[in-house]
Amino acid sequence: MSANLEAKKLVVEEIKEKFSKAKTIAFVDYRGITVGEDTELRRKFRENGCDYKVYKNRLMLKALSDLGIECPANYFEGTTAVAIGYEDEVAPAKIVCNFVKENNKMAIKFGILNGTSVDAKNIEALATLPSKEELVAKLLGTLNNTASSLCRVLTAPSRGLVVALNAVATK
């Protein structure tokens, strides 16, 4: 086999490994962004535990096919970069959507969420969700509020009795 074919097989294996570990993958058309903007975008992805890479379209299509993920081949026309989120499902979508809003140079093609192909509108909807940390904080706040309310309700009868006895004692 030629060295070029072996190199491509290694890249396909790398893509398959990253895609199989990912919770969220966003495919974007990165045409028109500058090197400085690309560097800033990569830094944001790294800070949030995500990868941002550019692979050849055919190699990504082959990796997805090998993983059994169905997506139309026309998504892989033109320039395609991939944002891969391993820990937080929302992070890659948020970063990409914020960049699109700020610079209006990038376009979301489609995405993969937990092994299922989704369109660009679903990735944009995912970006509007709060992060995992925010959701956990809201849940803990709700649970804490419920426990406090229950405590107040349970102590109300005895508090009422004490107030009534105190009123009788002061007469």
Can you walk through the features of this model?
By secondary structure, the chain is an alpha+beta fold. It contains 6 helices and 5 strands. The chain is elongated, with a radius of gyration of 26 Å. The mean pLDDT is 84.
CATH class of the largest domain: Alpha Beta
CATH superfamily of the largest domain: Ribosomal protein L10, N-terminal RNA-binding domain
Please count the helical segments. Answer: 6
Total beta-strand segments: 5
What's the alpha carbon Rg, rounded to whole Å?
26 Å
Provide the domain count.
2
Termini Cα gap: 103 Å
What layout of secondary structure does this protein have?
Layout (H helix, E strand, L loop, with lengths): L2 H19 L2 E6 L5 H13 L2 E5 L2 H11 L13 E5 L5 H13 L3 E7 L2 E4 H8 L4 H39 L1
Helix pairs in contact: 1-3, 4-5
Distinctive features:
single chain; 171 residues; alpha+beta; Alpha-Beta Plaits; 2 domains; 60% helix; elongated
Question: Brief overview, please?
Answer:
The chain is of the alpha+beta class and 171 residues long.
